[in-house]
């Protein structure tokens, strides 16, 4: 048992344990590498050589080497066809130079020298800037910087339809921008019309690159800078400041209008209400006057002279009742006596009727102003003069 477990290169008996040198004796050292390869080539050469034994050692080695080379070449060719398409990419496969298909992300194999696969990034967004001095519609020069963002949507068209898609996109963007700026005024480009310039440039750029089928899609387009040349920059800054002042004044005026308009509407409403109230009052007064005259009309028809005098006296009483000055015609004829009732009534209480008139003759039922110290006879004579219409 111990003898069978002994290593083949260890000496342990009369017969050697070396499997490569079983027929040789007296040599217990390590095997010769050349001899091992020679024995291996003989065995493999016999298999590839169809069992012929008449050839020499050189021919057998050549046959073995050729077969081994073929095997190695096949293995190398097979392993060289393995490739990986990344997650953000698409592979464009060409078979004998003709488009075959788009390869999805993952591990794939292709026959080398037959298929060719080119991976293209279709998810990343790239940016391309452009700038330059351009002429506006009103013959002014402005400097504009613009940036376009794009990505690849069709990898085959991107690779093989156009020689240089990025350069094509750059030239198309420059052409579209110059066209749009040339159809807008300087103020529109530099101030309020930037968004309009951006939208029109995007539309024009898309229409230019569409026939070329570059496989590119425009994601965004931004106007980074728009300014006049340095020689006129100060004057343009003044113009911009004036426009900003104008906008500020407009905003202030609108704020003032929003503040004043409600007040004005309130005053208008109040004036209209007062006018309506005045209108109603006048209408009611007129209706009252009509009703009063309708009541007096039968009396007037019965005694027109008496009614007319009574109306006259009532009117005089209403007119003179609010006056603080009274002129009295004395009996002498030419002299008038002035009674300063405004001074007299300051210390004297008002009468029950609220005026300074007394009734000299109850039978006449008329009111007349009476002077201080006048006799009842003169009062009656004055009343008679009023009743006679001033005829005496």
Automatic annotation (TrEMBL):
It comes from Neiella marina. HflC and HflK may interact to form a multimeric complex. GO terms for cellular component: membrane. Residues 11-21 have a biased composition (Basic and acidic residues). The chain crosses the membrane at residues 64-85. This is Protein HflK. Residues 1-36, 347-392 are annotated as: Disordered. One of its GO terms (molecular function) is peptidase activity.
């Amino acid at each position: 048992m111990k003898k069978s477990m002994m290593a083949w290169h260890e000496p342990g008996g009369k017969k050697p344990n070396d499997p490569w040198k079983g027929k040789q004796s007296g040599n217990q050292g390590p095997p010769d590498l050349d001899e091992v390869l020679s024995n291996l080539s003989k065995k493999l050469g016999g298999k590839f050589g169809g069992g012929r034994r008449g050839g020499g050692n050189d021919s057998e080695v050549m046959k073995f080497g050729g077969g081994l080379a073929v095997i190695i070449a096949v293995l190398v060719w097979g392993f060289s066809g393995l490739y990986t398409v990344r997650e953000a990419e698409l592979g464009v496969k060409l078979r004998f130079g003709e488009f075959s298909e788009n390869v999805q992300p993952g591990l794939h194999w292709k026959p080398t020298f037959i298929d060719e696969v080119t991976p293209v990034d279709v998810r990343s967004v790239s940016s391309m800037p452009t700038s330059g001095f351009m002429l506006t519609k009103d013959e002014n020069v402005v400097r504009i910087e613009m940036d376009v963002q794009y990505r690849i949507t069709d990898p085959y068209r991107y690779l093989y339809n156009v020689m240089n898609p990025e350069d094509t996109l750059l030239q198309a963007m420059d052409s579209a921008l110059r066209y749009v700026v040339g159809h807008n005024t300087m103020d529109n480009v530099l101030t309020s019309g930037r968004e309009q310039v951006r939208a029109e440039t995007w539309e024009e750029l898309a229409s230019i690159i569409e026939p070329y089928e570059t496989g590119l899609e425009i994601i965004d387009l931004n106007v980074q800078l728009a300014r006049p040349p340095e020689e006129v920059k100060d004057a343009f800054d003044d113009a911009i400041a004036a426009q900003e002042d104008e906008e500020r004044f407009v905003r202030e005026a609108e704020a003032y209008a929003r503040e004043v308009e409600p007040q004005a509407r309130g005053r208008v409403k109040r004036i209209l209400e007062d006018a309506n109230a005045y209108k109603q009052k006048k209408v009611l007064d007129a209706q009252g006057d009509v009703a009063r005259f309708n009541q007096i009309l039968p009396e007037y028809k019965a005694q027109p002279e008496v009614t007319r005098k009574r109306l006259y006296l009532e009117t005089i009483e209403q007119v003179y009742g609010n006056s603080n000055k009274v002129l009295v015609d004395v009996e002498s004829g030419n002299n008038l006596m002035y009674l300063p009732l405004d001074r007299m009534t300051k210390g004297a209480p008002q009468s029950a009727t609220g005026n300074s008139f007394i009734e000299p003759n109850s039978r006449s039922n008329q009111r007349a102003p009476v002077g201080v110290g006048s006799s009842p006879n003169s009062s009656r004579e004055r009343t008679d003069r009023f009743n006679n219409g001033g005829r005496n």
